[in-house]
Amino acid sequence: VKIIISSGINAEYGLANSEALKLARQVDPDSRRTLAVITKADLMERTTENRLVLEGKSIPVKLGIIGVINRSQVKIEEGQPITQCLEEEELFFKSNYNYISGEMGTPYLTKRLCQILLEHVKECLPELIIRITEQKVIQQNILDSLGTKVDDPFEMLIQLLYKFCQIFDKNIDGKESIKLCNGKEISGGRHLFQQFENTIGSDLEHLVLPEDIEQQIEDEIMSSSGAKPALFTPNVTFENLASNQVKIYVQPVKKAIKKCCETITEITMVVSKNIFRRFPNLKREAHHICLSLIMSKTQAVEQFLDNYLKCEISYINTNHKLFTKDRKKIEEENLDEDSQNLPFEKKNVKRIRALLELYSNIIKNQLMDVVPKTVMSFMVYSFKEDLHKELIKRLADKQKIGDLMKEDVFIEEKREKATRMLEALEKADAVTCLLD
């Protein structure tokens, strides 16, 4: 920042070695920004040296040296008018320094300071105009983000609720994206897809038959046969083993439901924070309604999938088209030469293991299809359909409107501050236009 230095020098205590000049030279070594003002010039000795100082030949300051006569304490107490003091000052300089009297005195000092200030402003004007314009844009953006004062709270409430639902819908449909709590920007639909991929997809893919499955098969065959050795494997053996394997899939399904519930909750939180940030009470109430609705939809998903898994566990469908089709291949492979060299019991165990793996894969593939469909239908789309009417039903109450639409105190303060700043910048802009 360029600063003009006005250095006051008392004529009674010497001019060339003035402390004020020494201080000025510390910040302005070349004296390009220094204007020397010699006070009490009437008390200065009439020497050649002092005359050279007033002429600007002794003290090198680029903005000039101006002598003035201060009104004494006695004259102040006597109530001498300033106009009379100025007349005496003018007479003094004309009488003693006539050849430079036009550049001495308080009126000339005022004129010179105004001239320097104007020149300085003009020099800084281009940069100043840019800074004013930038600040105007910043302050206007702040005002736009804060919104205008609420004239009709009920109408504003209806508009905000509609906008909230609209942005949520667009986000789920992938038409808009939001910034999540971890700073990542993503669409809600894409985020849900990733949850399906990372939970129900990935977790089920990694669930394979346990390492001791053949021992389990042998134990199950023995338990089903009783004291007599089994010539044929009872159906109940396969069904029990298959049911146990399906039970393992319950946890990945629950995990997927939980993750999707958390995703929907996070999206509503982020959207409500953006839409309702001016109105903390409204944001809190809307969030509670969203949570309640999400929990309701989540329970519907859990109930449906819980019943679905119970069906899969309770009834092992060995007549499933995919199972019967590939079962023949397994039976044929079981009769190859290597298998024929094995004992009957071992061949039987390997055959059942292959059938269990086949059946497990069929159930896993079905779950990978059913779980996303159920979550999207019973949770996401159902939540979208009911959200707006639920918010209107519970919030559009004229008795609550005053409390709900009460603005955050900090928002009001920021708006007033930004308004004052913008008004000041508009005035400054008008002044720069006159100077340009």
Structural overview:
The chain is mainly alpha-helical. 70% of the residues lie in helices and 4% in strands. The protein is built from 16 helices and five strands. It has helices spanning 19-27, 48-54, 73-78, 82-96, 106-146, 153-172, 188-206, 213-225, 235-247, 250-275, 280-314, 321-333, 337-340, 344-395, 401-404, 409-435; strands at residues 5-10, 34-39, 65-67, 178-179, 185-186. The strands form two sheets. The chain has a three-stranded parallel sheet, sandwiched between helices. The protein has a two-stranded antiparallel sheet with strand order 4-5. Helix 6 (153-172) runs antiparallel to helix 10 and helix 7 packs antiparallel against helix 10 (250-275). The radius of gyration is 45 Å and the shape is elongated. The model has no long low-confidence stretch (mean pLDDT 84).
